[in-house]
Specification:
The complex is a heterodimer of chains A (about 240) and B (about 130).
Chain A lengths: L1 H12 L2 H21 L8 H16 L3 H13 L1 H7 L1 H6 L1 H6 L1 H25 L4 H7 L6 H11 L3 H25 L5 H23 L1 H30 L1
Chain B lengths: L1 H20 L6 H16 L4 H12 L6 H5 L5 H6 L1 H30 L19
The chains are: A mainly alpha (about 240), B mainly alpha (about 130).
Chain lengths: ~240, ~130
C-alpha cells in the first residue's frame, strides 16, 4: 500500500498536472482570503499564492524547475494577455486624445523617474550589476519587463520577482503616497499607479475608483510600450 | 473565444517574427499589441467576441504573475545578500514613481483644462469623421 502511494507520489510530483493545479488552487485561496478579510491591499492574492506555493514546494522538496514544468501553461498566457492590452487601450482612445499632451509628458517623466531612481538606489546601496539591470524594467507588466531584462543582460526571473514586489508595494502604500502629495484628480492618481506599478497597481486603482482604474490601465499599457522601446535603446547608448 | 485566442496568438507570433527578423529591441508580445491596436483602429471598433475574451483574460491578469513570482525561491541567496539595496530600491522607486507621475499629471491637467477646446491633439483630427 505505502509502496503504491510512493509510486503515485513520484508520478504526480514529476507531472505537469501537479504544478498547474497547485498554482490555480493557491491563487483561489489567495482571492478567497483577500475577499474574506475585507479586501485589505496588503493581503494581495498574488503574494498569498506565492507564499503558499513556495511553502508547499519547500516542504515537499520539489524544485522550482519541476513546478514550472506545470505552471508554465499559466505563465505562457502572459504573452497573449499582453497582446490583449490593445483592447482597453483602444477603448480609452478618445479620453487619451483629449489629454494626450499631459499623458505623454507625465508618462515619460514618470517612467524615467521610476526606472532611474530604482537603478540609482540599488547602485548607492551597493547592489551588483546584475541586480541593477534586473531592477531597471520592474515598473512594467512582467512579460514586457522580462523581455527587456533579457535584452539588457538582467535575469528575467529575478526581474519577475521585482515586478511583483513593486506591484504589491504600490497596492499597499500607493493610496497613502497619493494623499501625502495631495493629488486629488482621479485620472492623475490612476495614471500614477499604472505607470509605476503595472497590472497589480491597476487592479488596486480599479478597486478604489473607476476613472482611476481606466487611467491606470492606460498608464500600464503606455509605460509598457515606452519602457520596451526606450530602455534597451538607452542601455545600448550607455553601455554599448 | 477560440477565434479571439487564435487572433491573439497570431498577433504575438507576428510580433515575435518581426522582432527577431528586424532585430528590434522590443519584446514580441508588445509588437503584437501594437499590431492588434492598429487593426482595431482600422476597423473602427472592438468586436464583442474580442471584447469578452480580452476582458476575461485581463480580469485574471494577476494569476498569470504567480508562476514567475514563485521564482523568488531560486533567488533567495541573492535576495539575502543584497537585501538592503533591493528593499530600498523597490520601496523608494515605486513610491517616488507614483508620486512624480501623479503630481505632474495633475499639474498638467489643471493647466490645460480651461482651454481644452483650443488644443486638439496634433494630427488626430482627420480620423474623427469615420466614427
Amino acid at each position: 500500500m505505502s509502496a503504491d502511494l510512493h509510486q503515485i507520489w513520484v508520478y504526480l510530483s514529476a507531472n505537469p498536472l501537479a504544478g498547474l493545479t497547485l498554482t490555480l488552487v493557491a491563487y483561489q485561496i489567495g482571492v478567497w482570503v483577500f475577499e474574506k478579510l475585507g479586501r485589505r491591499p496588503v493581503l494581495n492574492p498574488v503574494l498569498i499564492a506565492v507564499i503558499l506555493i513556495a511553502g508547499t514546494l519547500g516542504l515537499s522538496g520539489i524544485d522550482y524547475r519541476t513546478y514550472f514544468d506545470g505552471a508554465q501553461f499559466v505563465h505562457f498566457l502572459l504573452g497573449p494577455a499582453t497582446v490583449a492590452l490593445a483592447v482597453p487601450l483602444y477603448n480609452q482612445f478618445q479620453e487619451v486624445r483629449r489629454s494626450a499632451l499631459a499623458l505623454v509628458v507625465a508618462l515619460l517623466v514618470g517612467s524615467a523617474a521610476s526606472a532611474l531612481s530604482a537603478v540609482a538606489l540599488v547602485w548607492i546601496c551597493g547592489g551588483t550589476k546584475v541586480t541593477i539591470l534586473s531592477m531597471a524594467p520592474k515598473s512594467v507588466t512582467s512579460p514586457i519587463a522580462m523581455g527587456v531584462s533579457e535584452q539588457i543582460g538582467g535575469l528575467p526571473s529575478l526581474t519577475a520577482v521585482f515586478v511583483i514586489i513593486t506591484g504589491i508595494v504600490a497596492a499597499s502604500l500607493g493610496t497613502w503616497v497619493l494623499n501625502l502629495v495631495r493629488v486629488k484628480d482621479w485620472r492623475a492618481r490612476g495614471f500614477g499607479m499604472g505607470v509605476a506599478a503595472h497590472g497589480i497597481g491597476t487592479a488596486r486603482a480599479l478597486q478604489v475608483n473607476e476613472v482611476a482604474g481606466a487611467f491606470a490601465g492606460l498608464g500600464m499599457g503606455l509605460n509598457g510600450l515606452a519602457t520596451a522601446l526606450l530602455l534597451p535603446t538607452l542601455y545600448h547608448l550607455i553601455w554599448g | 473565444m477560440l477565434g479571439t485566442l487564435t487572433l491573439l496568438l497570431l498577433c504575438q507570433l507576428a510580433g515575435e517574427l518581426a522582432a527577431r527578423l528586424l532585430h528590434l529591441p522590443v519584446p514580441g508580445p508588445v509588437l503584437g499589441m501594437l499590431l492588434l491596436f492598429a487593426g482595431l483602429l482600422l476597423r473602427g471598433g472592438v468586436p464583442a467576441a474580442i471584447q469578452d475574451t480580452a476582458g476575461g483574460l485581463l480580469r485574471h491578469l494577476s494569476l498569470l504573475f504567480v508562476p514567475a513570482g514563485v521564482g523568488v525561491m531560486v533567488h533567495v541567496t541573492r535576495l539575502e545578500t543584497e537585501a538592503l539595496p533591493i528593499v530600498v530600491a523597490l520601496f523608494g522607486s515605486t513610491l517616488f514613481g507614483i508620486a512624480v507621475t501623479a503630481k505632474l499629471m495633475a499639474f498638467l491637467l489643471s493647466r490645460s483644462e480651461p482651454r481644452l477646446e483650443e488644443e486638439p491633439a496634433a494630427g488626430n483630427s482627420a480620423k474623427g469623421d469615420r466614427t
